[in-house]
Amino acid sequence: MAPVFLGILLPVALGLVMKSRSDNKKRGVLVEAGGEPGITMRNQRFLKLLETPWEGANTLADLFEQACKMHATQKFLGTRELLKKELEPTSDGRTFEKVTLGRYVWLSYGEAFEQACYFASGIVALGHQKGERCAIFSETRADWIIALQGCFRHNFSVVTVYASLGEEALVHSLNETEVTTVICDQKQMKKVLDLGTKLETVKRVVYMSELGGSQDPSNEHIPDSWTVESFEEVINLGRKSPVEPELPTAESVAVIMYTSGSTGLPKGVVMTHGNMVATVAGVSKLVPELGPKDVYLAYLPLAHVLELAAESVICASGGAIGYGSPLTLTDTSSKIKKGSKGDAAELSPTLMAAVPAILDRVRDGVRKMVDAKGGLSKTIFELAYRRRLAAIEGSWLGAWGPEKILWDTLVFKRIRAVLGGRVRGMLSGGAPLSGDTQRFMNICMGMPIGQGYGLTETCAGASFSEWDDLTVGRVGPPVPHCYLKLINWEEGGYRITDSPMPRGEIVIGGPSVTLGYFKNQAKTDEVYKIFSTIQYIQVDETGMRWFYTGDIGQFHSDGCLEIIDRKKDIVKLQHGEYVSLGKVEAVLIVSPYVDNIMVHADPFHSYVIAILVASQPALEGFARSKDIQFESFEDLCEKEEAIKEVLQSLQKVAKSARLEKFEVPAKIKLLSEPWTPESGLVTAALKLKRENLRKNFSDELKKLYL
Fold it and tell me: Which residues form the AMP-dependent synthetase/ligase domain (predicted)?
């Protein structure tokens, strides 16, 4: 028995040592930096901030061309064949589109570069001139990247627009940037054509064909002055009439990326080629053994900086990118025909990026599958999960022992097949990831899942959890291309002298910090701190730009960052949408049933809730008209009929004010007692004391999210 016992004990002990070393590892170190006084961290592995992934790759155009030449025959961009599309009835009488998709068809790096060059010449032949801007308004797909790189071949700046953006925001984005050529898929093309009279500078539209082929769009809504051409025909034009490229420099504007916006109309963030290349340089160093053997599943919006940065990193490494969509991601995704494969099962990716809402969906899907099997299968799963959780969190010594192999083989191998069975790492960004979901993915999918932190204004990555970091709730140390600084926020009571950890507003400095907001100098000056000014760029005395995020963080002893608060009353929901609490409250207080209201949003949920002081005359009048019996006003506020009536009123007010669906409270709590300055819940001017309200009604808020 002794040899067997030692065979188990040795890997267990080794696992404990490995975990102990990981926990004590220094990941970020203090550094002296210019700008406003504070505590500044850099990545401990690099003495100097990285600016390029390799010598000579100073722009995204350089990076793309050189990668395509280095990996010419390697598969690069993959698109699934559409075999069948059909409508299926639902239980409520509606129909839902289901698709049957086939294998991935690939373009090599060499073929993709050739198409980008032809597209570049084609839009010139179509009439797009030097100094004019293109916009890409499309779902994520291979043609998106080819169009982007084609524009870069002639130093055309590209405006990126979310496919889900509303009409007002779309018109604003295209008009503000004076876009002359719009590149879109056929679904988005209808929106562009319908808005034709409102688009002041558009002259040309290039549309990407639907997968599986489709008819050309009707000429019915096309303005007479516009030229409308298919993506394929533009490539053919370029093939017939090649034009010598005019490549950008590192200082050239690559992308003007319109964010979804926290309040009002979206803002365009101005990114240079140098900004984006710096992000590629830094992030590429953080993924172990990144290279041509990797396969990345792309399904997030390319108009979001997280996805654009991720695909740029894969391109630089020579990896393959297979395209999918959130609705076809797994075998059980809503758009996949039952019995056919989802994107992950067909592609078998090694790397993925995700937002928390997607990961929560995967987690819930697995749990439903386990619950449906029940019996012994469920018992074994729960036992395996508990044992692996104990191992990872250090309360048991089997993190790397034989028992891990047993549970992986017996239980988790089948679950990992949901994502193709080969995923070796995943990055979560865009919103906070719950510790429960992070642990679930660690255990069931058998991979590190790192949280990243960054903003459009910093070209995505500012910090990134390292793969051997088993902690949850943190966003890792600074990436190698930027500094993270904490500065005092006296008003909120966060100071760099706080114990046990320094706390403060997060400020980001380095070559990935963008130029500012397009045609919005006032907002640029507000969040890009000015120490001296060189033309458009805000810099400190050392020549480094600093972006003030408005987020509050704290540094752990190992140099990792944790996000703990936000300066403004703006919250990002689970799906990445921003909610301006004050704006929503100003709209909803118009309801006749509302005396006062506080809207509450939690980053771990996809909807907002509200607690409100009900108007006694209005609510009692409603109750009498409906013959609702109540003993007191407090009793009436608990009645289901009263809550339903007030909620409907809020929804009506919200609709008339054109609030987004995610801005409208899904659940509410009615209160009978008014908020007064004496109670400490409002100021003398009757403005909400939000933090006091949250603390006072913490139990009610928790119940609303149950």
Answer: 98-518
